Each structure stands twice: as structure tokens, then as C-alpha cells.
């Protein structure tokens, strides 16, 4: 998506976000999963669950084949929902240190600034679009938001591929 950004500062910002997401989430996953005795090799060998596979493909295809703004609408729920969920869970707290670490990550001020920046980018990028283009963005956004819900539900249900 960063490679399609019409503004250099957006390209830099999205590229940095991608790198930081990989670094931060990998470190968090290694620490949390490691505390349960799951090795780095087991993590590397794990298959992607069906909903995760579908969601990832939706994001990749939309970013590749769609306009920059469509790609941004597709990834926006990845940012925004985590922030909203993080804020809500922060109010409730958790006795589980692993959950608390996740909550702190996504309810924090730094993450709030990141989400605010992407929301501003989305607003600026979608200015002047036709009604049909805006409707397309809404459909892409809602599909990603649905996949976000399904992603969490998939984990809760421990979804696996059918034999």
C-alpha cells in the first residue's frame, strides 16, 4: 500500500507502520507464546487458519488491485478496531499479564496518534470522490471490519482447516 501512496509522507508513514507492526507484534507473540512453552520453530511452522488466510488475501488483493484509497479503506479497520477495543478493554483491565500487555499496546497514546494519523490520511484521500467511489470504500471497509470480527472469533473457536 505504501508504494501506491500519492504523497511521499504517506508512503513513509505506512511503510514505517508496516515495519513497526511486524517488529512489535512478533516480539509480543514470541514473548507470550514462549511463556507457554511454544518454540520459535513451532510458531514458524504453524499454518494460517482459514479466516486468517481469507482476510490476509482480501487485504493483499485490495491493496494490489484497488486504488490507494481502496487499499487504505481495507487496512483502516486493522488500525482503528484494535485501538477502539484496546481503549474499551483498558477500562475493564485484566488480571492476565499477557492480555494486559496487548491492551496496553493498543490503548496507548502512541498507538492513538498512529490511528489518528491514518484516519486523517483516509479523510484526505477520500475527499472529492464520487458517491460510487465512496460506496466502494465503505464496502471494502465493512468487509475488513467483518474479517476483524471473524479473526477474533476464529481464535476463540480455535478454527482449523477441515481434513
Provide the β-strand percentage band: under 5%
SSE run: HHHHHHH
- What is Rg? 17 Å
Global morphology: globular
Chain oligomer state: single chain
Describe this entry's structure for a reader.
The chain is mostly helical and 163 residues long. The chain is 80% helix and 0% strand. It is built from seven helices and no strands. Helix 4 crosses helix 7. The longest helix has 28 residues. It is globular and about 50 Å long.
Question: Helices and strands in order, then pairings?
Answer:
Blueprint: H1 8-35, H2 40-45, H3 50-65, H4 68-92, H5 97-107, H6 109-126, H7 131-157
Helix pairs in contact: 3-4, 3-7, 4-5, 4-6, 4-7
In brief:
With 163 residues, the protein is mainly α. The protein contains 7 helices and no strands.
Jot down its keywords.
single chain; 163 residues; mainly alpha; 7 helices
Amino acid at each position: 500500500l505504501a508504494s501506491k501512496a500519492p504523497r511521499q509522507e504517506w508512503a513513509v508513514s505506512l511503510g514505517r507502520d508496516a515495519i513497526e507492526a511486524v517488529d512489535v507484534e512478533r516480539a509480543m507473540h514470541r514473548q507470550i507464546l514462549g511463556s507457554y512453552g511454544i518454540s520459535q520453530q513451532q510458531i514458524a511452522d504453524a499454518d494460517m487458519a482459514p479466516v486468517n488466510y481469507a482476510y490476509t488475501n482480501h487485504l493483499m488483493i485490495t491493496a494490489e488491485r484497488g486504488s490507494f484509497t481502496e487499499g487504505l479503506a481495507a487496512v483502516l479497520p486493522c488500525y482503528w478496531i484494535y485501538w477502539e477495543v484496546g481503549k474499551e478493554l483498558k477500562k475493564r483491565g485484566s488480571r492476565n499479564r499477557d492480555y494486559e500487555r496487548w491492551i496496553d499496546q493498543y490503548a496507548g497514546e502512541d498507538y492513538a496518534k498512529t490511528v489518528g494519523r491514518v484516519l486523517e490520511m483516509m479523510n484526505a484521500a477520500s475527499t472529492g470522490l464520487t458517491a460510487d467511489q465512496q460506496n466502494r470504500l465503505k464496502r471494502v471497509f465493512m468487509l475488513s471490519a467483518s474479517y476483524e470480527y471473524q479473526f477474533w472469533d476464529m481464535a476463540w473457536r480455535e478454527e482449523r482447516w477441515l481434513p
